[in-house]
Each structure stands twice: as structure tokens, then as C-alpha cells.
Design a protein that fits this description.
By secondary structure, this protein is an all-alpha fold. It contains six helices and no strands.
């Protein structure tokens, strides 16, 4: 007969898997929504957020793979893959922010983009909190680290939302790329911590 600790760990593992499937499903849907919104508004920021959703899909897939097995080597490999995702995100954010500032790209008003990024920010913050708690309870560094990827996704959604609103209401087209630099700095810090083994 399994003990209480085993049952509790099994329940936490199921919760972690459900959180990852929820993240995966939301981001798969988001790629389509953001593609439509980005084309309609000619928005580099929305297109970039779509790329972030693709990275988040990859990170969730890595965590689902890691949670399906055991072993320190499996965890190390999963963390390296998540670190690579953060590095791609940082590189993209830096390149996009510079391109938007230099090219003085002025996106059109995007009601769909505003609505989607607003709801996405709330969903990602809730999922990130769930992953952090579950990862801590399981003592699983991969789930905790991917929770930070989800947090960055939520922060990026909020930054894109703010940029879209400031552009629509005040014509401040440069607000979004400035937020992109801040988020890129956060992503670089996460990459350094992952590869230094401080997850």
C-alpha cells in the first residue's frame, strides 16, 4: 500500500503536468491569434510575441518530457534546453527592439492584440505561480525554471500590451522596444543562472 508521501508526490506530479499542458494549449492557440493580429496591425511587437509563444511551447514540451522520467542527467539536459530557449528569447528581444527603434516602426491600432495580450498576461502569471509552487513542493528545478520562462512570457505580454496601449492612446511607438530591452536583460540573467547551476 502506497504511503501518504508517495500519493502526495504523485498528485503534485499530475498538477505539474496539467500546468504544462495548459501552457502548451494556450500558446498553440496564441500563435494563430498573434499571427492574425500582427499582420492586421503590421506590428513587429505582436509578431515577436508570437515567437515568444513558440519558445514557450518548446519549453513546456521539454518539461513534459522531463516529468515523464527521472534522473539527474535528464534534469540537466532539460535545464540546458530551457536555458537555450531563454537565450533565443533574449537575442530576439534585443534584435527586435533595436530594429523597431532604428526603423521607427509605427504599428497600427490593434484591438485584437490588446485583448489577447491582456488576457495572456493574467493567464501566464497564474500558471507561473502554480509552476513555482508545484516545482518547489516537488523539489524539481526544471519545473521551477520553466515557471520563470512562463513568468517572462507574462511580463512580455504586459510589456507588449503597454506598448500597444501607449501607441494607440498617445502615439508613443517607442514604449514597446524600451520594455523589450528590460525583458531581454531579465532573460540574459536567467540564462546565466541556469548555466551556472543556480536554478
Amino acid at each position: 500500500m502506497p504511503d501518504v508521501q508517495e500519493i502526495s508526490r504523485s498528485a503534485l506530479l499530475r498538477r505539474g503536468i496539467l500546468l504544462e499542458y495548459a501552457t502548451l494549449g494556450w500558446n498553440v492557440l496564441g500563435v494563430g491569434v498573434l499571427a492574425v493580429a500582427a499582420v492586421a496591425a503590421r506590428s513587429v511587437a505582436l509578431a515577436g510575441f508570437g515567437l515568444d509563444s513558440v519558445i514557450e511551447i518548446g519549453a513546456s514540451t521539454v518539461v513534459l518530457w522531463e516529468l515523464s522520467g527521472t534522473g539527474e542527467e535528464r534534469q540537466r539536459r532539460a535545464l540546458r534546453l530551457i536555458g537555450a530557449g531563454f537565450a533565443l528569447l533574449a537575442g530576439y528581444l534585443l534584435a527586435q527592439s533595436v530594429a523597431v527603434l532604428v526603423g521607427r516602426v509605427h504599428p497600427h491600432h490593434s484591438p485584437l492584440g490588446i485583448a489577447w495580450t491582456g488576457v495572456t498576461a493574467l493567464v501566464m502569471f497564474a500558471l507561473a505561480t502554480g509552476k513555482a509552487r508545484t516545482g518547489t513542493a516537488l523539489d524539481n528545478p526544471v519545473l521551477r525554471t520553466e515557471g520563470r520562462v512562463t513568468l517572462v512570457d507574462g511580463l512580455l505580454a504586459a510589456a507588449v500590451l503597454l506598448g500597444l496601449l501607449l501607441n494607440s492612446l498617445l502615439g508613443w511607438w517607442w514604449a514597446d522596444p524600451l520594455a523589450g530591452f528590460v525583458l531581454a536583460g531579465y532573460a540574459v540573467r536567467e540564462v546565466r543562472e541556469i548555466f551556472r547551476g543556480r536554478q
